[in-house]
């Protein structure tokens, strides 16, 4: 399959041209034109690149790319990453906020689907973009029950602060570093807020506001959109795909 057809399709599907983002979404490093195998991962690490090259990838698709709105000196690990891609003829493409906020393939919609929540509505404003979703359970669940599902399906270490309702009917999800939107979940009156990272002050914010907060890891909460994109690309283009996990509990 042609490289540019794949990238153009994902750009349109995720509407990346209309989303404000610090990431350079879409093509980041141009490799060979013909794509027979796509490797997908969460972050553009040297470990991922080396394993993708060994796996015979023609293209790598990630959520966290190499370029973030400023220039970088080409040296050290950054130089090694570029050398690995260029010497192997591998294309690198990345979609950041577009893969967080998509209603079907996005990280946040996929987590709510994984948990069995419905009635999804956009939620969580980050730098002017609404990137998360909120939803409801037809049957209320406990925080330990929800945490268990996340632990099992995402291979996550879960940190939960349970100072809110015992039974969860409404919840909001903003993957990755979405702890900064916890106050938006509190203001919206949600029974539970789920994100990736957590800082020291979050425990007392939860206690003081009688709220529930679950951290499931930045990396692990952002696997779900990559998984959905892998399935979409394999089905749409008939190419070989492989998700390469480079585990990170943060």
Commentary on this structure:
This protein is an alpha/beta fold and 250 residues long. Helix content is 37%, strand content 27%. The strands form 2 sheets. It has a 6-stranded mixed sheet, with helices on both faces. The longest helix is centred in the C-terminal third of the chain and has 14 residues, at 224-237. The chain is elongated, with a radius of gyration of 18 Å. The relative contact order is 0.17. The model has no long low-confidence stretch (mean pLDDT 98).
How many strand segments?
A: 11
Rounded mean pLDDT is 98
The CATH superfamily name of the largest domain is: NIF3 (NGG1p interacting factor 3)-like
Question: Main β-sheet, in a few words?
Answer: 6 strands, mixed
- Give the proportion of residues in helices: 25-40%
């Amino acid at each position: 399959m042609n490289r540019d057809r794949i990238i153009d399709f994902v750009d349109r599907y995720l509407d990346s041209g209309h989303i404000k983002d610090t990431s350079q979404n879409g093509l980041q490093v141009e490799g060979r034109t013909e794509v027979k195998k796509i490797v997908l991962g969460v972050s553009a690490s040297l470990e991922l690149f080396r394993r993708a090259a060994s796996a015979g990838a023609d293209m790598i698709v990630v959520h966290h790319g190499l370029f973030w709105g400023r220039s970088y000196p080409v040296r050290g690990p950054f130089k090694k990453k570029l050398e690995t891609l260029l010497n192997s003829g591998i294309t690198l493409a990345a979609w950041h906020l577009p893969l967080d906020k998509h209603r079907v393939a996005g990280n946040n919609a996929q987590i709510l689907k994984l948990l069995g929540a419905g009635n999804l509505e956009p939620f969580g404003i980050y730098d002017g973009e609404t990137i998360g979703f909120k939803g409801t359970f037809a049957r209320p669940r406990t925080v330990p029950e929800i945490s268990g599902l996340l632990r099992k399906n995402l291979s996550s270490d879960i940190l939960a602060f349970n100072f809110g309702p015992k039974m969860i009917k409404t919840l909001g999800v903003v993957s990755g570093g979405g702890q900064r939107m916890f106050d938006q979940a509190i203001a919206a009156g949600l029974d539970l807020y789920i994100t990736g990272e957590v800082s020291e002050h979050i425990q007392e914010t939860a206690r003081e506001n009688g709220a529930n907060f679950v951290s499931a890891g930045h990396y692990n909460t952002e696997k779900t959109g990559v998984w959905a994109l892998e399935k979409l690309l394999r089905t749409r283009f008939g190419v070989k795909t492989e998700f390469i996990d480079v585990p990170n509990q943060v």
